[in-house]
Design goal:
Length: 208
């Protein structure tokens, strides 16, 4: 564990069972924690304020890994537009504006459809590169992807439940953008998708 804590990023290995084991674990713990809400209105308010200031016309939004749908409910209210959420578990049908969907997967209807994409669940990605590539693709031009990243999303917080962790994710991404090649395997998509990053408290803002 000490060695893992020193790494810039870490990805849990599910062995030969691979994605099937990952999905089963995510669904199990989604049901176990269904009454828990990780997102908070203060952070979502910060996002909404930034979006209203920097986006001329907010069309719609999407959040990924939303469990009870708190994020999209708050952002819908604050941004006064439709915001949906995705959740890998079949519990999604219990909550408004929530779609059962693996957030790694491409949905042709969502490509270029959203003015804002938000997630605090990148740490739950089986394949973070693929997830980020999918989320960026959902953005309309010159709009915003928000990734909430705290110390609990670092390498020290990884497990079979939260398989991906990055220490100072903004620094890892910045290092890639500045040409440090050791990060290119994970963040290679950003050279043609992302042109700026900014830090807003615990939010990493990626602008297409």
């Amino acid at each position: 564990m000490r060695q893992k804590n020193l790494q810039l990023y870490y990805q849990h290995d599910y062995g030969v069972a691979g994605f099937d084991k990952y999905r089963d674990i995510q669904v199990y713990h989604n049901n176990r924690k269904l009454d828990k809400i990780w997102a908070d209105e203060k952070t979502l308010g910060l996002i909404s304020e930034y979006v209203r200031t920097h986006v001329k016309k907010v069309k719609a939004g999407i959040c990924h890994g939303t469990r009870r749908g708190f994020e999209q409910a708050v952002l819908s209210r604050l941004l006064k537009c439709t915001v949906i959420g995705t959740e890998i578990s079949d519990t999604a049908i219990r909550f408004p504006q929530t779609v059962q969907w693996d957030f790694h997967k491409r949905n042709s209807k969502w490509i270029g459809a959203y003015s804002v994409v938000y997630s605090n669940s990148l740490d739950q990605a089986f394949d973070p590169k693929r997830a980020l590539e999918t989320w960026v693709e959902q953005l309309t031009e010159d709009v915003l992807l928000f990734i909430e990243h705290t110390m609990s999303h670092s390498t020290s917080g990884t497990s079979e439940i939260n398989p991906f962790g990055a220490y100072r994710f903004d620094h890892a991404l910045s290092a890639f953008l500045s040409g440090e090649r050791e990060n290119r395997d994970l963040f290679g998509l950003f050279d043609h998708h992302i042109r700026t990053i900014k830090k807003l408290d615990n939010l990493l803002l990626c602008k297409r």
